Amino acid sequence: MKIVREYRWEMGHRLPFHDGGCRNLHGHSYKTIIEMEGEADKNGIVIDFYLLDAIMKPIIAELDHGFLVWKEDKELIDVLDHIKSKMVIVDFQSTAENICNYFMDKIRNSELPKNITTVKCKLYETLDCFVEDEIKLI
Known about the structure:
The protein is an alpha/beta fold. The chain has one domain (2-136): Tetrahydropterin Synthase, Chain A (2-Layer Sandwich), CATH 3.30.479.10. The chain has three helices and six strands. The chain is elongated, with a radius of gyration of 16 Å.
């Protein structure tokens, strides 16, 4: 059986290496859809939505209305620091693929119930562009 939960947040970023518009400061209305698959327990629960929220909501809160900044983008870090803007400094470029991996790492390192066999993350950067990753835990 599978449970699915959707989360949304607003976040800015830039890709300094990019040859197009993504090189500039900009933001997106992000959405992620998290799926967890496994055997339901004796009460019929795969994972309680409350537990999934306990994992995901702090991650979303950390990112919401902030800038995701690659640690080597010193110019942007200095500017955001100067204007006292919310930022999350990471050791990766803020591509949709890497953000999806970020979520999967956070989920993988959380305390999931033992019955969870598969975790899937679909991350939307725009309404019609998304990346997807899946991990098998067992």
